[in-house]
Specification:
alpha+beta; Nuclear Transport Factor 2, Chain: A; 3-stranded antiparallel sheet; two-stranded antiparallel ribbon; 5 strands; 23% helix
């Protein structure tokens, strides 16, 4: 179990304003999002968390290939998640993540 976070990195809260826990698929997707969107080497206690995906020029011809290879590396230790691909749509970047045979799009934060 993990605490649910919003895209700003703050705790998500229920209708009473209390943080809440997530597990299963939601927890795995959150771990993937953090691993792929966090800026590399910015966490004091875990310098390996995060990467430099946000710096990739998504207009380059090989952007999806480069992002895919790096995303696979960044998420290799997340049990239950497999990166199936990277898609760039309308200037936004998505990781296609397979969990228990079902695919999910995880929007990556850039910047």
């Amino acid at each position: 179990m993990d605490m649910s976070l919003n895209v700003s990195g703050d705790f998500d809260t229920d209708i009473l304003g209390r943080p809440y826990e997530i597990d299963g698929t939601e927890e795995i997707l959150q771990k993937v999002y953090i691993s792929l969107s966090a800026h590399g080497e910015c966490f004091i206690y875990d310098r390996d968390l995060g990467g430099q995906l946000y710096k990739t020029d998504i207009s380059s011809e090989n952007a999806e290939k480069m992002l895919y290879a790096r995303a696979k590396d960044l998420t290799e230790n997340i049990t239950g998640a497999e990166i199936c691909g990277i898609e760039i749509r309308n200037g936004d970047t998505y990781a296609v993540v397979s969990i228990e045979g079902k695919n999910y799009d995880v929007a990556l934060r850039r910047g």
